[in-house]
Design goal:
435 residues; 23% strand
Length: 435
Amino acid sequence: MAYNSISLNTVYNYYMTSYAPKSSSRYDTHKKSELRSIYNSIVKLNKESPLYKLDSTKESRSFAVGVKEDARELRNVIASLGGLDEEKILNKKASYSSNEDIASVVFTGEHPENAEVPSYEIEVHSLASNQVNTGTFLPNTKTQLKPDTYSFDVHINDLNYEFQYNIKEGETNKSIQDRLAKLISNAEIGLNAEVIDGGNGSYALRLRSVAEGLKDNKSSVFLVSDDYTSKREGSVSYFGLDQLTNPASNAEFTLNGAELTSQSNSFSIDNLFDVTLKGVSSSKGDTATIGLKTDVESLSENISSLVKGYNSFIEHTAQYKDDFAGSRRLLGEMRGITARYHNQFDILGLNIQENGTIAIDKNELRHAAFSEYAKEDFSAIRGFANTLVRKMDQISLNPMDYVNKTLIAYKNPGKNFATPYITSAFSGMLFNSYC
């Protein structure tokens, strides 16, 4: 059982680092009814699917998983612009900050009709910082530590972690520092480690906390020691791993006249705005005003975000067109979708390019937004977004439709039964290197 758990973790980590985008959103969670609908769709798909011999090369696996993840990403972009309801799509209110050098902002709340969302004035006195330990700069020569098994403890987030490693005869300080940097960073305990060059052939190991600020009035984020470790001690003092060079601190700012602090540079205001502090106010009274943009500005920004997400999907798909016929077919299907809205796009200043991407003429887009026919003209872009959502759902359900494959046999008409063939083929690609 333990072996299976380790294997699954390895596969998951390989998937996340090799294929999956680094972003996630609340739209990646689903209700039971939605999962049931997806399950029923998979059963129906498998029941009707012929038997194929699939291309199982590494490139094919990367293409299939990449297409599915790109479709998920575009769907989430559209969902974030007001939801997936056909009436609300692209209705998200856009936020603004009058001084992006001090603070950036994203509106995350609901905006009922005729409800007023307040604006805020923020002045930043100091930013939240990470704790940094910078070790002793040592020459890249043979280490003075004796060959043996060494260990040290790291106390972070109220937990203790012990790191063990071996030093062999003839190893250099730099080779050990490089190994420790990988060991600590890959452990993912909330610390990043790197080897920094001090010049003149000397190097030091720098530890930086992932988290900013200090919790519960603590004096530090992490502590490194080998006083009570299980193996040989001495490496902490030798490499200087316990040398605090930059203590963590909390952010201090004034919000609408109230003095506040935050453990992080990113926080929420009244469940309406997600604010990220970027810099310190240059003088007293140097503030940033955050609030909501007008409906016209919000709609224009939503369209820009939609087009950016669409273009990203097209560009990623096009990377495979020379090797996979399915990529060329998918690009053709996407061109077919945009072709339906070509005339309406021209009115809005959206120009379809030869490579299938869309370019925005912002002046024409703004002119269309103020036109007396704006409601009718912009209904086309909402129809386009809804069509994309349905297409992305289809791709996510069966990305194997676009990989190279050879048809072996059709199922017996009228006597079909559900099989896990298509979905298991896709899932199995993630395990090919581990089973």
